């Protein structure tokens, strides 16, 4: 059962219950699969909206489990990847969109968070589900144990990249908004996703403009020597070499909404706003 409020939030298409199935509120989601026990029993699968009764399906004899040897990944040993019959394509069909990561990079003060929020709003108005991973926000929780030293910055980006990948796998459009100054770290995040699903957006705004804006007062502190390793002052920023989208160039005169519309146009042209 999905209430009208949740339905509105997710932008789901809700129709009447399949014929012969009672529902006190006469609503049901007609695209679903149900995983059951791990004892080899069959699973319930339903991928259409014509009201037909779901077909039964078995996966490798054990629902959600992939057969094969144990693996070692990094420092994790004796682990095994578990599959579920509900896959990315099913979630994308449910949401009527394709999951991807929009990685917004640029200097502090270049307008990354402003663009991310404007883009989020435009996609919400179109009934598309997205989520913002903001650089400062993730340091309030997930990455609060990390400093701004080079090695911690690399780990910060790695964690955000992995979380963004999970969001994209659910079918959600994930907007990651971080300075992410090092090219190698951004490229490493790109390799986590299928070809085309990592969309790098470069906020191409000069240091002079960003420092003049200085919305958080950080440049002033860095110039006074109160912040060490600040990007653009005493730590480098490596601009993208082959980003999908470049925005914010001086003299363009474009507003945050107009820049967000360019990103939406890119998503539409690449087919991400439909399943």
From TrEMBL:
Any one cellular-component term (Gene Ontology): chloroplast
Which family is this protein grouped under? Belongs to the APS kinase family.
Recorded catalytic activity of this chain's protein: adenosine 5'-phosphosulfate + ATP = 3'-phosphoadenylyl sulfate + ADP + H(+)
Composition-biased stretches, type Polar residues, lie in: 60-72
Protein task: Catalyzes the synthesis of activated sulfate.
A biological process (GO) of this protein is: sulfate assimilation
This protein's pathway reads: Sulfur metabolism; hydrogen sulfide biosynthesis; sulfite from sulfate: step 2/3
Q: Which InterPro entries match?
A: APS, APS_kinase_dom, P-loop_NTPase
Q: Which domain of life is it from?
A: Eukaryota
EC numbers, comma separated: 2.7.1.25
SUPFAM superfamilies per the UniProt record, alphabetical? P-loop containing nucleoside triphosphate hydrolases
From the UniProt record, which GO molecular function terms apply?
adenylylsulfate kinase activity; ATP binding; identical protein binding
User: Which Gene3D superfamilies would you find in this protein's record?
Assistant: P-loop containing nucleotide triphosphate hydrolases
Q: Map out region (Disordered) in residue numbers.
A: 46-72
Protein name, as recorded: Adenylyl-sulfate kinase
Q: Which residues form the APS kinase domain?
A: 98-247
State the UniProt keywords alphabetically.
Answer: Amino-acid biosynthesis, ATP-binding, Cysteine biosynthesis, Kinase, Nucleotide-binding, Transferase
């Amino acid at each position: 059962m999905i209430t009208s409020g949740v339905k509105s939030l997710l932008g789901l298409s809700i129709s009447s219950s399949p014929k012969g199935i009672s529902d006190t509120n006469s609503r049901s989601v007609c695209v679903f699969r149900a995983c059951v026990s791990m004892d080899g029993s069959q699973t319930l699968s339903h991928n259409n909206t014509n009201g037909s009764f779901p077909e039964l399906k078995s996966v490798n004899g054990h629902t959600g489990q992939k057969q094969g040897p144990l693996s070692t990944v990094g420092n994790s040993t004796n682990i095994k990847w578990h599959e579920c019959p509900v896959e990315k394509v099913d979630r994308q069909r449910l949401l009527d969109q394709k999951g991807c990561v929009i990685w917004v990079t640029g200097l502090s003060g270049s307008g990354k968070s402003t663009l991310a929020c404007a883009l989020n709003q435009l996609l919400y108005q179109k009934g598309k589900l997205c989520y913002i991973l903001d650089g400062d926000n993730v340091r309030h929780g997930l990455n609060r144990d990390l400093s701004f030293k080079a090695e911690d910055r690399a780990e910060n980006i790695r964690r955000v990249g992995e979380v963004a990948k999970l969001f994209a796998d659910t079918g959600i459009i994930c907007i990651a908004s971080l300075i992410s100054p090092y090219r190698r770290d951004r490229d490493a995040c790109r390799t986590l996703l299928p070809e085309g699903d990592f969309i790098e957006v470069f906020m191409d705004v000069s240091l002079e403009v960003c420092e003049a804006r200085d919305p958080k007062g950080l440049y002033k502190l860095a110039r006074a020597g109160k912040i060490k390793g600040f990007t653009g002052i005493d730590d480098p920023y490596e601009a993208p070499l082959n980003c999908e989208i470049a925005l914010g160039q001086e003299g363009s005169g474009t507003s945050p909404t107009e820049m967000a519309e360019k990103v939406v146009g890119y998503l539409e042209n690449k087919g991400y706003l439909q399943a």
